[in-house]
Amino acid sequence: MIFKGKVFKFGDNIDTDAIIPARYLNDSSEENLKKHCMEDADETFSSKVLKGDFIVAGNNFGCGSSREHAPIAIKSCGVTIVIAKSFARIFYRNSFNIGLFILSADTDGIENEDMLEVNTDTGEIKNLTKNKVVNAKPIPKFMSELVNAGGLIAYAKKKIKEGKK
């Protein structure tokens, strides 16, 4: 699949508390998570991000707690892909399980507000602002199927339904 959108760039070690502060987890509704997403890293993020935009970061994105609220908050904002140099292992897995694309790539040449075109099948990231291409590690086909189905639960339901035919 190919996605186009604007970049919201963050640095290294963005933890799950920066993605969705724990003080807001007494209400796990998607609307609440969307409203406070990335608030401790950029308090204007949720008011500026649009459906299809990208989060781009440095190393160790999603470190900290194992809560699934972090990728759910990002997805609730309309972000379709997070691109970072590296991800915390649990965040990486949680993201695919809830249906959020994750790509590992060298993000040094990507700046805040650059426009990108990303092909999740090939891993090609075109920086339309700078007319440059970065290649991410392609996503395994099974992981891509999970995201395209809407996450692990939706994928399992789909497979069960297909098995009944």
UniProtKB/TrEMBL annotation:
Its EC number is 4.2.1.33. It is an enzyme of class 4 (lyase). Coiled coil: none annotated. It holds the Pfam family Aconitase_C. Pathway: Amino-acid biosynthesis; L-leucine biosynthesis; L-leucine from 3-methyl-2-oxobutanoate: step 2/4. Residues 34-104 form the Aconitase A/isopropylmalate dehydratase small subunit swivel domain. It catalyses: (2R,3S)-3-isopropylmalate = (2S)-2-isopropylmalate. HAMAP family: LeuD_type2. Belongs to the LeuD family. LeuD type 2 subfamily. This is 3-isopropylmalate dehydratase small subunit. The lineage of its organism: Bacteria, Deltaproteobacteria, Candidatus Acidulodesulfobacterales, Candidatus Acidulodesulfobacterium. The gene is leuD.
